[in-house]
Write the structure tokens for this entry.
Amino acid sequence: MHYDEARLYSITKRIIGRVAPRELSIVDLVGPSYLASLQGLRNRFTRNENRDAPLGVGGGEVSTIVTPVVILMVYKSIEMLAEDTYRAGKSSLTGLIRRRRKHHRTQEGQPPTPEQLAAIRQQTERIAKEQGISTDMARAIANQLIGCLLEDATSDD
Amino acid sequence: MTDPFEGVRVSSVIHDALEVASTRRPSSGGLLDTGSLLSALVSCDFAGQWDRFIITSYKEHDNEQREALRQWHGVRLTQQCAQALSLASAIAEAYRLEPMPPGALAIALISIPGSNAASMIIGDPGESLVSQIQDAILGTTLEGLTDFIEQRTKAASQKAPALEQQGARQDAGELPDGSSSPKQTRRQLESFRLITILGMALLAQSLLLGQLRGAAELVRTSCLFQQNLRQATAACSTKLAHHTAGVAFLTALAYYSIVFGLRAALKISKRSVRNLHPRYQPAIAVVHEISKEMGLRLPPIVGRTRTGARIADFKGRPVLAMSEQTAAMALLDGAELRHFKAIVRHEIAHILARDFAGHRRAKALRSGNRSIAFVIAVLAFIWLPASTAIRMSIKTAVVFIVVELSIRALLRRREYLADLRASQWDPDAMAVVIERAHRHSGRRVLSLLRAPLALHPLPSNRLLALSAPQWLERLSATRLVVVGTMSGVVLLSITSTLREAFAGANAVLVDTRLAGFIAGLPIGLVMAEAALSSSSEEDCLALQWKRTMVLTFGLVIGVVLSPLSGTHLIGTFNLDATSLLVIPVLFLGLMLAAQVLSAAIKSSLVEGESTLPPVIMRHLDRRLVECVSALVFGSVLSIAWSWADLTANYPDYVPRYELPDASIQRVLGSIAQLVGCFAFSPYSLIALMLVYTPFLYWRARAAPELRQASRWRSFSTADLVKVLKGGGILVMLVLLIAAADGHLSTSVAYGGRHWGIALLYIMAAAGIIAVLTHYIQPATPWRGPYSIQTVFYIGLIALLPAKLLGGSTFSLAAAIRATVIATTFSAAMGVLLATGFGLLTRSLMEMLQVNQRRRSAVSDALR
């Protein structure tokens, strides 16, 4: 199961289509190339620390738009799965041979384990809290994300 | 191959466009041509109004010479493209456009004969393309640009063979001629010139202070001979304190010289602005639309931040930074778009009020205080006894807290005004935005506890102010108590008598003089904020004016009601505490003066390029007003500091003010004392306000285009006449009271506790204020913070600490007389300064306009 840009974009679009369908136009406008750089996403979204900035609107994030946050969640989850695969591969002889180029691959044909899904859910809710997304919406996004990951694994099989 | 952009700073948009264009080159190792660069520039520059032009596909045109002589970052350029980049560099350098804006590159691309870009773009046939691009893309008009371009293109065509030879030599591995970059040389010269100006100004000031200090030392020597041993010991202690303050002063001098001087010269910016992703172009378009709607002449740079939206400062230009989530709101229709517009309006209201500049000044004051206080504390622990050092450290700590709280209170006040201005278009959307912004603010109890430190008011208060703007005009008991108490304490604590009262009680460690400083600082900040930020708010000018007036009158009432003794009006004031306020202001003024002087010198000295950069021309009036005001203010303060030191520490040398006397010596002594009073009290800030307002008026008269702008409509000639008449009436009434006091003084001046007389004075003062307030501002309400009642209450509250802290032993009549005369003196000084510097400003502006007209005539004749 290889997560290229198109597939990431597809997952993001599916989640947005289910939790916030009116934001689909934003996803279309943003496009797949926006998702190309994980480092860029890291720079764009960090912990919501300085909420009361001088000469601002006050408080924290004003927008209730979830698209950018969903993109971040999807990427973080994929990254987490890739890290797990990397660690698992590193401990074996095969992994030692392959470890250079395996950052963006999960274990082929194997759906995420329950531990991984729990970790993804936890991470998703943490990001949602940091970015000011409501608890209900965070749970809905986490559910959709997990569903998409499982669906992808099944379709690959 | 040489790089045409070597040593030139270009904007990020140009950099992006070059990168994009280099990726779009034909795959057969093609050269970068002007057409592809123009196409990429259009796709990357969202600030420009490119929709005013028809841009055809660049593939249809290909006339450029495919012989690469120059390159950019390894990308080979066609001859026309290389010429265009060189021309853009020359334009940016000649007109001081740093970093090079996209408009300069666009003009250069279409100005090269035979370039693909020139054949791709179609504009309005009735106007030249260069002027259209200046208007739509560059955002300003560069005088004589067409002639400049013609000269450069001719010179470039003559240099082309030489360039070919040079390129061939470099390709063959030969080194280029070793000449230094003119850009670097210019920058070095600029730095040197600025630092020289700054250094000379500081040297002159130090010499002046040194002279005054030398005079003080002479007096000190004579005093030491005359006094007994105990007094000599006290003098030594004073000397040590003076040394501490002196070193602190020198350290601060070095600090501000380095920070402000180098920063002004080299334009060091601590924080770079990150670009918003190009896909959020609709958000940028909305920002431009709302900027135009709200009357902002130049839309802000749109940048990216991590959370919400805020205004940042990028080298003097406002940046509207917003998060991607916020920018994404503009991509939707309906409610989200309305809310996005409300956010943008709020931020642009901050820009219109020039809050970002005020915030920058506040940060400078804060950082300066921090460094100076550190030096003071360290030196105090080295040189002074432990108890004194601890006391001084407590002082500085308290000053920090007060400065911080004052700055935050001012920022909160600005938020109310921004909310109100933004809500004029869509109040409901603004209310929703406020509610959303504070949805994560936590429990209300915690919010209340954090309120004094918060940068924004409580959401409930913001919503209340939106729904009922008159709520801002309410009679706030807290504000009354704070302002009134501080007004009273500031005047009381600068008397040395109160120190004795505290020493007798032996209950307070903090010196009472510190209380004066603490109390004076927030008032000073409020006054400065009211005076310095009133230039840009079209409908808030009257509001600022009223605010300044009410604070002034509140202070005057505080002065009048405070039982000061005329003989102790100055008292002793610690140099260390003074330096915390005086030195930052002084250096701020010097920095601004150096900027303007440097611009003027550069424009007059650089041969053949005597046109002031348009950006500086546009902001010269504001910079000039600020720098002159701050310079005068700082100089008066520093000179008066030395005079006050003399009068306070050597009272036998400088006669004190007691009663008007025919003796010349006494009159001189009284003047010196009043100068000291002028320096150490908020009178100097009142004078600053008096200087500043006529400046605005004269600037408006000197520049007809500004007079036509909406912000000047609220301040007409009639208003100025009213102000001047009001000032004259104030002087006359004060003199009348002083004359009446002459009759009363023999009977009540030294009797004390004549409350009937005191009440008479209070009523007289209230009457004066009532007449003046309603004469100058007929719409002044009888209720609210600007009303007579408020001012009166502030004065009464100011009386309380005076009476509680030993005021009963002083003569009210003498205090009133002294303060009334001091007020008159301050007002007269303010009017004189306003007249003098107003004339100076007008003359300078007229001179610049004449020069401009002359240059236009010359360029027309040449054309």
Notes: Residues 12-173 of chain B form one domain. Chain B has a mean pLDDT of 57.
